[in-house]
Amino acid sequence: MPVPCILIPVQRKTLVADTLSILISLTVVLLMVRLNPVQGGSYLNVQGTEGTYRYPLSVDRTIDVHGPLGETTVVIKDGKAFITDSPCESKACTRMAPVTKNGGFVACLPNGVLLSVASSGESEVDDVTN
Amino acid sequence: MSPTEKRTCYVASTTLLLSALEYLIPKPLPFLKLGLANLPLLVVLESFGWKEFLVLALLKVCGSSIISGTLFSYVFLLVFFGGMASAVVMKGVSSLLKGHISPVGCSVLGALASNLIQLWGASMLVYGPSIWVAAPLLLSIGLASSVILGFLASSYRKHGTMLTHDFSQGNAASWITYPHTVPFTLLAVIVVLLALEKNPLPLAISLVALFCAQKASGRKIMLVPSLVLFLSMLVLSLFEPNGKVLFSLGSLTVTEGALKDASIRAMRLVALVSASQSMVVLMPRVPGKFFSMLSLTLGYFASFRIHKKNGSFVQWIDASLSSALTGTPKAPKAPRIGLVTALCVLCALSLIVF
Fold it and tell me: Which of A111, B50, B71, B144 sits at a 20 to 30 Å CA gap from B12?
């Protein structure tokens, strides 16, 4: 009985190239799953007295966080986050080791600002404020 | 116009028929495509030469953007580069491996090229890097649908008669437009202003004005695609937290900045597409061979009528397809120029004043 050609249009001559094309396509799909640029990104969590803020560590920016004493200036640069200025007396927070994607934290307790890292997929950072 | 050119236009018009069909299928992401419109390209892959094939691809890209109304928005850039990349890849592998690759292989590689280019373009122009979250899904769907399309194309090649028509005679039905320079130029200015606008209020005002202008120029307003676009942008914004945390859902955080960014980007794109919709109706005629071929392609497209099913599936498709060669094109609704112009002025003013 003749088989309708729509069921087996595959010919031996083209089998190699066709299979190869499908394999290339599958490889790219798998690569995309593994190398997803967004998954596994790290974020900076900024806890202030007025709420929590979250920013990607990969984008450079300057953020002003409002606290009881005034504005604390937070800078994200080259994947590192630190405080450059704060209205506290000691300015100890400006000398602390920066927050990177590996962890660490920077705090200006007088102005109620806490920087910590949050990775996507991980649970929330514990509450330290107040 | 030579019979070969008419044949190219005719095949191009069948791609438009399929992209119109594709447009009716609801999708979770606006540019998640099955690529139905590539079917005719796969069918003629070997019988068309390089030049004819690329002109066909160009007609497909421009024609479908006119029908969907996105020609004058940056959606067109995505469609253009994706469509041309896939055409070059398909024709390239088919002429390189002459006879050693079937439409299935060509289709799979063409879809891959088009999807990668479109993802890259969308990440640059529309969504930002978060679109790559959807990459595995888009590419897998592209792979599956391109395999099926490849099989369909090789089946049609054996039984179809699309290319055997006599293209030397018959009066070519041209496409009907309503060229009006003033509102068209106004809309072109609005498109530039929209691309630069960063505040939500003027964007919202122009969006409403442009929707009204679109209606007045005789084009249907499709709310579902706009809503899909809006929602997809909001969902993808979850992967790019930015600013004050509003609330968290498991590991995903909804932030004020990301939400605002996504709404602005979505409003801008919906407004741009709406402006483009009116521009397509009002666009002036351009002299030159390509435009007259495009006009004939759209003329054929507007002349298709579905025939009663008679005989096999392929015969029925062929009978319906050949109707374009003898029919007269349906005229689109005439635009209300005064109203369109007034709405454009209103929109431009709101963009300049705020």
Answer: B144
